[in-house]
């Protein structure tokens, strides 16, 4: 049996195991075995095939695999949409209390309410977005409120 055919069988076997395990390592070794099979198919000696396999495997495992793992593991940290707005600072456009108000957040005007229902935040104050509740930003003052701020008494 020709060496290139053995490399090809090894590549297929590693590819199948990679599909079942999703380790990224076996798939890269399968690609390296395909490189060795190609070298054998064009008639290069076994020593060159082994060197080609080793070089392709090393390049895959030390260069490509870390990039693939980084992309795979960054999913939960990558916030988008409304979740990406939590923690940002905003400017109060219309007085905010526990029920209503308006802020400018990331260049857009949002409805807002204060997380502390007894607090009234005046126009011009800076607030931090604590959460997004539907289309309303739930906020808290970034700094101690100026003299215009009051405790809401009911």
Automatic annotation (TrEMBL):
Q: What is this protein called?
A: NfeD family protein
Q: Where is the NfeD-like C-terminal domain?
A: 83-141
Keywords for the protein's UniProt record, in alphabetical order:
Membrane, Transmembrane, Transmembrane helix
Q: What is the lineage of its organism?
A: Bacteria, Bacillati, Actinomycetota, Actinomycetes, Streptosporangiales
Would the keyword Isomerase be found if you checked this record's keyword annotation? no
Q: Which domain of life is it from?
A: Bacteria
Topology in membrane? Multi-pass membrane protein
Q: Which InterPro entries match?
A: Membrane_assoc_protease (IPR052165), NA-bd_OB-fold (IPR012340), NfeD-like_C (IPR002810)
Q: Which Pfam families match?
A: NfeD (PF01957)
Q: Where in the cell is it found?
A: Membrane
């Amino acid at each position: 049996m020709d060496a290139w055919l053995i490399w090809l069988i090894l590549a297929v076997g590693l590819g199948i195991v990679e599909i079942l395990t999703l380790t990224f390592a076996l798939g890269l070794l399968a690609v390296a075995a395909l490189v060795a099979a190609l070298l054998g198919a064009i008639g290069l000696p076994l020593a060159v095939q082994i060197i080609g396999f080793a070089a392709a495997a090393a390049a895959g495992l030390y260069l490509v695999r870390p990039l693939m793992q980084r992309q795979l593991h960054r999913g939960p940290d990558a916030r988008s949409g409304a979740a990406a707005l939590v923690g940002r600072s905003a400017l109060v456009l219309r007085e905010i209390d526990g029920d209503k108000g308006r802020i400018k957040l990331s260049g857009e005007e949002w409805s807002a309410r204060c997380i502390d229902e007894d607090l009234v935040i005046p126009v011009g104050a800076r607030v931090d977005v604590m959460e997004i509740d539907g289309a309303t930003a739930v906020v808290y003052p970034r700094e101690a409120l100026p003299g215009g701020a009051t405790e809401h008494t009911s």
